[in-house]
Design brief:
about 230 residues; mainly alpha; about 0% strand; disordered N terminus
């Protein structure tokens, strides 16, 4: 009697024949989704817990506020880890270790210390609600959202350039507009990446899928946080 987990279709076979998650067997498809959203949930829980530690520890807050380079260093380390994750995404358990370190070192941890507790909490609830709603919408919809990619990346580059211009033309109104535009762009990325994980990724790429969604959630959260903070200043 075979002891294989998937007697009819293995993940390796699906990957070797170039099939995506949507065309794999139901068992493999459900196992893939379970892995992706379990990893994503653990990432969010770990990030939330560590961010709370950063916010409620006065010593850590003083250190971060007194060392602006901390945000830059954590952002650069995050980029390096993302590159490593892309290279080792199929190598278990290295990919899981890298994912853990990336989650702990995410630049979000130091960023939230610059905002009020109530604003951070509101942004967290809004982000969870928006992500849940968009995920349900994408899975229920029969539309193919893969064509959104080019437009979203173009908008992202415009947003990055506009963010640099903000240093020269800074105002509360500009901050609010850019933050709102950024939130909309990452709402689009949540739809796009949710569609991507089913229709373009292989059943082995659950780490990559969870990273994509995690980055979308973090960026959506940060932009919502900026929107709420700007609205309070008006």
């Amino acid at each position: 009697m075979s002891s294989e987990k998937y007697p009819k279709s293995s993940i390796e076979d699906d990957f070797n024949y170039g099939t995506n998650v949507a065309t794999a067997s139901v068992q493999i498809r459900m196992d893939f989704l379970r892995k992706v959203y379990t990893l994503l949930s653990l990432q969010i829980i770990l990030t939330t817990a560590t961010s709370a530690l950063f916010m409620f520890s006065q010593n850590i807050k003083d250190f971060v506020h007194g060392s602006p380079a901390v945000v830059l260093v954590s952002a650069l380390l995050s980029l390096v880890l993302l590159l490593a994750l892309a290279i080792y995404r199929h190598q278990h358990p290295v990919n899981l270790y890298l994912l853990l370190v990336f989650t702990v070192l995410t630049f979000l941890l130091s960023t939230v210390t610059f905002y009020e507790y109530s604003t951070v909490l509101q942004a967290l609830f809004l982000t969870c609600a928006v992500f849940t709603g968009l995920t349900i919408y994408t899975f229920q919809s029969k539309r193919d959202f893969s064509k959104m990619g080019a437009g979203l990346f173009a908008c992202l580059w415009i947003l990055i350039i506009a963010s640099f211009m903000r240093f020269f033309f800074n105002s509360d109104s500009t901050e609010l507009v850019l933050a709102g535009a950024g939130a909309l762009v990452f709402c689009g990325f949540i739809i796009y990446d949710t569609n991507l994980l089913m229709k373009q990724l292989s059943p082995e790429e659950h780490i990559l899928a969870s990273i994509n969604l995690y980055l979308d959630i973090v960026n959506l959260f940060l932009h919502i946080l900026r929107v709420l903070d700007s609205m309070k200043k008006h």
